[in-house]
Description:
Helix content: 40-55%
CATH class: Alpha Beta
CATH topology: Undecaprenyl pyrophosphate synthetase
Structural class: alpha/beta
Radius of gyration: 19 Å
Low-confidence stretches: none
Number of strands: 6
Shape: globular
Oligomer: single chain
Number of helices: 9
CATH superfamily: Decaprenyl diphosphate synthase-like
Bound molecules: 3-methylbut-3-enyl trihydrogen diphosphate, magnesium ion
CATH architecture: 3-Layer(aba) Sandwich
Largest sheet: 6 strands, parallel
Amino acid sequence: MESTFAREEEVKTKPLPGHVGIIMDGNGRWAEGQGRRRLDGHREGSQSVREVTRCARRLGLKALTLYAFSSQNWARPLDEVTGLMALLAEFLSKEREEIMTNGIRLNAIGQLDKLPVLVRGPLEALRKESRGNKGMVLSLALSYGGREELVSAARTAMEKAKRGELDPSKLDADTFETFLWTADLPPVDLVIRTSGEKRISNFLLWQSAYAEYVFADVQWPDFRAPQLLDAISEYQRRDRRFGLTGAQAKPAPP
Length: 254
Ligand code: IPE
Ligand code: IPE
Ligand code: MG
């Protein structure tokens, strides 16, 4: 079998997605399938986060956004929510050094004020510390929902209009985008979902308007560097047209 290193080199010879978003799904089923507790699946899933982030960084992706906890996930049983929050806090403290030595900028999107101090504290600290890093931006979508984000952006627009800072008749997509939590991130090129489910589950609704989707049939704890490379290879075989005809969208021959 070809080594991961050789495959990375091969993938790097073709245009890479600038920004990849991942719906990290299937931790619970991974654990339940082995007669283990759901939280064991989340713990194993955090190992996938490490490996996938390292691989994305080696490839030179500009941005990686990981859907770690949705606005709707708060309604899960309290012990699962508490366990997930503790795992997140542990992840942030353990990964601090690697994030800093690799020049990664840590970012977070979502209703962050809902997070417990246990998570918000180390998250804000690392966000601040890594602010000047020029490598990949790693965004954690935490307490995130695409609809919640759109409502928040609409609220910002309305408040600006009320203060006379925005003329409603001049509001266009480019301006609206600056009110989203992802305003400083590059366009999303590829969204990957693991676990075999084929749905978006409230992830990056606006941002994925022209993203390519790749659905992986493995649970998140089994998604590692080789699976990321498979997904990026699939992306590289797609034709993106952005509403144009095939002939228009093809790059002009040299
Ligand atoms: C994804 O795995 C992680 C979170 C949503 C927090 P799940 O916990 O959704 O696992 P399944 O989909 O129930 O197997
Ligand atoms: C989406 O997974 C959210 C995250 C991966 C954090 P869910 O497990 O919450 O989504 P559904 O319930 O399958 O739609
Ligand atoms: Mg799930």
